[in-house]
Amino acid sequence: MKYDITKTTAPKMPNLGKGTECIKLLLSQASKDIQEPLVPMFFPSLGAHVSGAEFQYPDNSWKELCGLMANLVGDSGCNKGQLSPLVEAICRDFRLHDKAVTNQLVAWQRQSNVNGGKDSTARPDVALWFPPVDTTAAGFLLNSMALEPERRTQYFNLPEVEMADGLCGGHKKLSHMIRNIYDMARAGALRATKDGVTGNPILRASMTLSANPYSARDFYKNELFNGTFGRMVFSYKPRTSRDGRIPRQGKYDDEFYRKLDEYLARLGNCKGRFIIRPLNKLADKLAADMASLADLVDDDILWDLSKRALHSAWKAGCILWILNNQVFTRSMADLVEWLCYRDIWSKMQIFSDMLNSKDANLVSEAQRRGPKNMLDGLPETFNEAQLKALRVKLGKSEEGANAQLRQWVFRKFITYSNQTGLYTKTEEYLKNA
């Protein structure tokens, strides 16, 4: 395992080398203090540009690159607002398309009003690629139906997480929608009257949100264990020191847009079915690492969260592969691995106490107690009683100590001596610790 997510310090992003030039281009427009937290936020809008392409996940299922959702979390004034200009840059083509479509809809509405609803033409069968935040459930269904024939993805950017409750009919329906979007499920409606909207399309959508720690905790407090929370990628920016300097953003000049359009064209032109074998090999390795991490901290919740974090990072790897002219590099692998760990680290930094106690105080600071690597909390040679004492100190039961020791031996983290009854950390573990 390359990253230690049990610390309060964020996993450091690897150097952006060959194959990550598009990400470097986007970061050139952001101030340095917010660059790392912004990287996971780029992939939903980039992935929304891919339609008609499928990629084989290591479990042999075929996945499209829709369903990517990410939430940027940081204190007020931490420069989260720099995400929106970057999103607008990535989605300039979406805006141009939607402007033409909106003009058609406005003209139709005016004509209908003039005729008083009599002998009016049918509503134009058009769809928005970048719908507004105030989209009703019926509007979302109509849009999804119009997008389905071309397998297009609609993309939402919500500068404040509270705005999401106004999307598709309220918080409860949004929670269901997030799960359906991630799973690319069919989720429509059957209405009994001609005035209702009836349809059952495959939901192809992606989404980015922004929040401060308090609003994020309040928004997801009832979604931690139903699958909604785990499907969302989180990128947390901790509070930093007061340096008294105004961060500098980019200028978004013509050369920036020229280079960006070249990358977006690669995404739009990618069609067909693909198997990215080096990416799938990396995913298998990360799956094993996630199991080892869960055993070190003895945390089933972390284990459950890691599965979807890995899946989202894998999708980001597919996007990087397209952006790099369908070539996978070591630098891309390093970034995918980092994305997986950063997502889990962010979730634990913001929500760890809530995941362990449903009565956690929402107002308290986001400096939460994340998962603890219990093996690091023990001496190089130790006995079972010491592990039991440590488990009790961390709020875990003594009964789980024996099973945890067996897992550590199986994963070659420790060895056991029958003569002394003591456990010893292996050289391999100490070298990677």
> How helix-rich are the residues, as a percent range?
40-55%
Global structural class: alpha/beta
From the N-terminal CA to the C-terminal CA, the straight-line distance is 9 Å
Q: Gyration radius, to the nearest Å?
A: 24 Å
Spell the H/E element sequence: HHHEEEHHHEHEHHEHEHHHEHHEEH
- Assembly type of the shown chains? single chain
Extract low-pLDDT stretches.
Answer: 358-368
Q: Quote the beta fraction.
A: 5-15%
Query: Total number of β-strand segments?
Result: 10
Mean of residue pLDDT values: 88
- Count of DSSP helices? 16
The gross shape turns out to be globular
The largest beta-sheet arranges its strands as: 4-5-3-6
The largest pleated sheet is described as: 4 strands, parallel
Short description:
This protein has 433 residues and is α/β, with parallel strands linked by helices.
What brief labels describe this structure?
single chain; 433 residues; 4-stranded parallel β-sheet; 3-stranded mixed β-sheet; 16 helices; 9% strand
Description:
The chain is built from 16 helices and ten strands. It is α/β, with parallel strands linked by helices. The strands form three sheets. The chain has a four-stranded parallel β-sheet with strand order 4-5-3-6. A three-stranded mixed β-sheet has the order 2-1-7, with no helix packed on it. Strand 4, helix 7 (171-182) and strand 5 form a beta-alpha-beta unit.
